[in-house]
Design brief:
The protein is α/β, with parallel strands linked by helices and about 250 residues long. It has 11 helices and 6 strands. The protein has helices spanning about 20-25, 55-65, 80-90, 110-125, 130-140, 145-155, 160-170, 175-180, 200-210, 225-230, 230-245, and strands at about 5-10, 30-35, 70-75, 95-100, 185-190, 215-220. Strand 5, helix 9 (about 200-210) and strand 6 form a beta-alpha-beta unit. Helix 4 packs antiparallel against helix 7 (about 160-170) and helix 5 (about 130-140) packs antiparallel against helix 6 (about 145-155). The longest helix has 18 residues, at about 230-245. The model has no long low-confidence stretch (mean pLDDT about 95).
Length: about 250
């Protein structure tokens, strides 16, 4: 049985190290690709994103460069929205879709205003005040000090101009609700029970829309269950990967 490569798409405002527990768990058994998105981490090119579709284009170009012809694509939060955009762009390369703590709808007019206002603020003030404010929504207040420090460090290390550009691009993203009803590969929908950014109700709606999906809710986790509950997350993801491998 051939192990399908796993591609991991991080959220905002993080970098590829948010997937550290998954990289460590799965790299011995399959190829794992976990890039820094454009403008994040040590990404090359370092230029900021100009439109949301650029993220999916960059991932497709990376898969071409690495000669990854088929993969399981996993994304969390903004990364999940990018994964949906990837499925819209190159569905023939995706053998399984993992959508964690995300939602498919386009931004509301109110949401557009909020994202643009936050982008302006980050450019004025930098990342630290924002990171301090949202830390306990990104990870639950009862998360370990190590996880809290890692998440806070990723946020404060992100360049404000890149974070602002991504927020503006995300405000204009496409609506993928109808796309989900046309997904022809197995899907895994994951969410933290205490996530207030993308609550369980959002995950349930995606699960209902996807023709072949499994929903798993992580008790004792907020927006980043892959870091907050890594062993459980890896077990659920590993079971899904085994099923995709067998099917492929």
């Amino acid at each position: 049985m051939t192990a399908i490569p796993l591609v991991l798409v991080h959220g905002h405002p993080f970098d590829h190290t948010m997937w550290r527990p998954q990289i460590e768990a799965f790299s011995a058994s399959r190829r794992v690709v976990a890039p820094d998105l454009r403008g994040y981490g040590t990404s090359v090119p370092a230029a900021e994103v100009d439109r949301f579709e650029r993220f999916a284009q960059d991932i497709e170009a990376l898969l071409d460069e690495l000669d990854v012809r088929a993969c399981v694509l996993a994304g969390l939060s903004m990364g999940g929205q990018i994964a949906m955009d990837c499925y819209r762009r190159f569905p023939e390369r995706i053998r399984g879709l993992v959508l964690a703590d995300t939602f498919p709808a386009a931004e509301t007019p109110e949401g557009v205003g909020v994202r643009h206002a936050m982008a302006d603020r980050l450019e004025r003030e930098g990342m630290r005040g924002y990171a301090d404010e949202v830390l306990e929504k990104m990870v639950a207040p009862y998360a370990s000090p190590q996880v809290r420090a890692h998440v806070h460090g990723m946020m404060t290390a992100t360049r404000p101009v890149s974070a602002a550009a991504a927020l503006r691009a995300r405000a204009a993203r496409a609506d993928h609700r109808e796309l989900l009803t046309r997904v022809t590969v197995p899907a895994l929908v994951l969410v933290g029970a205490d996530d207030t950014y993308t609550p369980v109700s959002d995950a349930e709606a995606m699960h209902a829309a996807l023709p072949q999906s499994h929903l798993h809710v992580f008790e004792g986790a907020a927006h980043l269950p892959n870091l907050e509950r890594p062993q459980e997350f890896n077990a659920v993801l590993g079971e899904f990967l085994a099923k995709v491998d067998a099917r492929s």
